[in-house]
Fold this sequence. Notes:
alpha+beta, 11-stranded mixed sheet, 2 domains, 5 helices
Amino acid sequence: MDPRLRAAVDTSLAWYDDVFALHAIPTQVDGGLWWALCPPPPWHSGVKTTEPGVGVDRVLAVHEHGAVADSFGDLDLAPYGFTVLVDATLVHHLPLDEPPSGLLHGWTVVRDAGLLAEWNRAYDYAGVLLPAVLDRPAFTVLARHVRGALAGGAVVHRGARPDIVGLSNTWSATSAEVDHAEVLAIVGVLHPASSVTDFAQGADLGAMVAAGYAPLGPQRVWVRQEG
């Protein structure tokens, strides 16, 4: 397996571990599968593959809550009433050769609960990043302001490996698209020696590849209509 793909999947799993711990939701991992023992927070799956080639029967055996994150894009859950909600690609970027010396103009680290609440409302992420996230050093929530108004953001997460960080939830509140080179520069300031992993789809994937990210492989999210 491409070590960059392995790193991207492991970094995503570390995010899940820490987000679910933030919500005090117990989880289990065994035989290439990770799953939650209670309903997941918004926008998160309840089951996640951690190795390729996991059997569909095993996924169905542990699936109780939410969506299924197909980390290697090799599941076929359609015969069991699931549809693909997200059809994305995992990406990887090497550390920048010369990161900036400080955060770029307009960007700040979110350090207070009031700004975090505003960030969550603007991004439709309420109920995910709880106020306690501000006390957890693995997470860095970033906000971008334009003329004093919140105009975008991102989250950087460090898992167990010091040489890799996960970038996620990058957004813009304006009609302007996310400047992925700018966001990479911000990550470079915070973690200058770390590679960056993320996932994207559609036009956003093309923009990230144009910014120097290498596409690695598919990541899909399957959902099943209940009732």
